Amino acid sequence: VGEGRLVYLVAMCRAVPVNDLLDRASQRSDKMHSLSTLLTQEMDSHFPPYGRMQMPRPADCHTSALQTPNDKEQALQVSESDLMSLARSLLQAWVDPLAVLSTSAITLPHPSKSSISSKIQELQEHSKSLGDGLDILSGKMGPSAQAISFLPYTGGTDLGQDRVTILNKFNFLLSCLRRDSHKIDSFLKVLRCRAAKLQPELC
Q: SS3 of 124, please?
C-alpha cells in the first residue's frame, strides 16, 4: 500500500462512526478468542496427562500483574476509557509471545503442528488488525483510553529441549492467551453495548 493510499485509508477509518468501529473490533476479538480456544483443544488432544501436573498456574501468566475485572458485572462498572486501555494493554502484551508461539509451532512435537501453526499465524493477523482498529478507536475516546500498561514477556524464545517441556510451555502460553483473549473480547463487547445504549442485561 502506497503512503498516500495508507493516509487515505486511515482517514476513512477515522470517519467511520464509533459504533461501527466497535462492531468490527468485537468481531475481530471474538475470532481471536475462538481461535485460541480451538488451539487449546487441539493441543489437549495430544498433551501428556503428567504434563498438566507440571503446568504453571494462571497467576504465572505474564499479564497477571494487570488488574482487570473478573466478570461482566465488574466490567460494567469500569469506565469506557479504562476498558479500552485494558484491552489495548492486553493485546499489546501478546505481540512478542505470539511471535514465539508462531516460531515454535513449526517444529512442535505434535501431530497437528501444521494446523496449529496456521491458526497461530491467523491469530497474529487478527491481533495486528484489531490493534490498528483499537488505536483509531482510542484516539476518539481521549487520553485515558490511549494509555497502555506495558506487560513485558520475559519467557524467552526457547521453550526447551525435551518434548514434554516444549509441549508444557507451549500449552501454558496458549492457556494464558485464551484467558486474555476472552478478557479482550468481553471488554469490547461491553463497550459495544454501551455505545449502542443497550440495557446492561443485554450486553
A: helix
Structure confidence by residue, pLDDT tens digits, 9-33: 554 555 567 788 899 999 999 999 9
Q: Which three cell numbers stand for residue 88?
A: 489495548
Indicate the pTM of the whole model.
0.86
Q: Report residue 34 CA to chain centroid gap.
A: 11
Residue 49, amino acid: P
Q: Which CATH number is correct for 18-49+57-202, 1.10.10.60, 2.160.10.10, 1.20.1250.10, 3.55.50.30? A: 1.20.1250.10
Q: Which of 101, 115, 91 is nearest to 182 (CA)?
A: 91
Alpha carbons 28 and 135: distance in angstroms, whole number: 14
